[in-house]
Amino acid sequence: MAQATREIKRRIKSVKSTSKITKAMELISAVKMRKAVDHMLLSRGYAHLAWQIVVDLAKRTGQTYHKLLQAREVKKVAVVLVASNRGLCGSFNAQIVASAYQYALGLFSGDKAPAVDFFLLGKKARDITLKYKQLAAAEFTKPDVTLRVEEIFPLSEMILTSYLEDKYDRVVLAYTDYISSLKQIPRIKQLLPIPQEEDALLGDVGELTRNTLGVKADLREYLFEPSPAEVLQKTLPRLIETQIYQAVLESDASEHSARMLAMKNATEAAHDLIDDLTLAYNQARQAGITQEIAEISGTKAAMS
Fold first, then answer.
1. How many domains does one find in the chain?
2. Is the pLDDT of residue 73 over 90?
3. pTM of the predicted model as reported, rounded to 2 decimal places
4. Tens-place pLDDT, residues 26-35
5. Domain assignment present for 276
6. Which residues fall within 8 angstroms of residue 65, CB to CB, at 6 or more apart?
7. Is residue 274 part of a domain?
8. Is 173 inside a domain boundary?
9. For residue 12, is it within any domain?
């Protein structure tokens, strides 16, 4: 009986130590989440409105003005997969990796299935190659919280150059959209060629941006100076960079929110386990004391 109580005490001590670690990780993730969310929200309105303008430009100008507008037969697809560097964030990485794989699987199902290359951002994005045996064209590092657009320049430059050189006929972003600290949604978004349909998934944020800035689709007119070709040549690559940057910011905010929630759940589970173990320990002690009393009583009765 004494050995059983010692084992329970050892487990209680171990779980308490683990709960302290998960609580510390929860607090750290909460700080990083607030930083990432604040930074993401600062640029979200601009990024969404910029994308609406780009889509509108694609509809109102001819595809001949810029190669980024030109749709062509899809023979090879580039998927930019944004994940985290570390785990312990619930199903965050598994969901976006699985979504990217399902998108690729959908492409393979056709009669003329295009080849698919993955551009990986974040160490956990490697799961697409390890688990699903997909080809990675390039891997890029990312900080825990992306703060400057310059940090994604190597990725965006490679994507734009590869598309302009006809190495790929379509480029899509696979990232996690931040909805709230409790909800994040994996998303696949076509980046190139620039689509001519407005992004319905912008939801309330996109609607609020349009209403706040008074932008009405039927009232837009564009005057290009010096010419449409020159204006698009300068602006389209920068706006594409903005979309990649915003996707990374959304993913950062989603990652730290998911990790904070996962660590919070782990801490609560540890406390529940400690309560159960404490109850088991007290019951074991009580059983031991009862047994000792019974033995003493039995011995006394035998001696009398």
1. 1
2. no
3. 0.83
4. 999 999 999 9
5. no
6. 228, 229, 232
7. no
8. yes
9. no
Q: Which residue has the tokens 């994005």?
A: 125
Provide the pLDDT confidence category of residue 213 given band limits of 50, 70 and 90: very low
Q: Are 253 and 178 in contact (CB under 8 A)?
A: yes
Cα–Cα distance for residue pair 77/83, rounded to 1 Å: 19
Give the integer Cα–Cα distance in Å for 165 and 272: 58
CATH code for the domain in which residue 183 is found: 3.40.1380.10
**Domain residues for 193?**
26-202+227-260
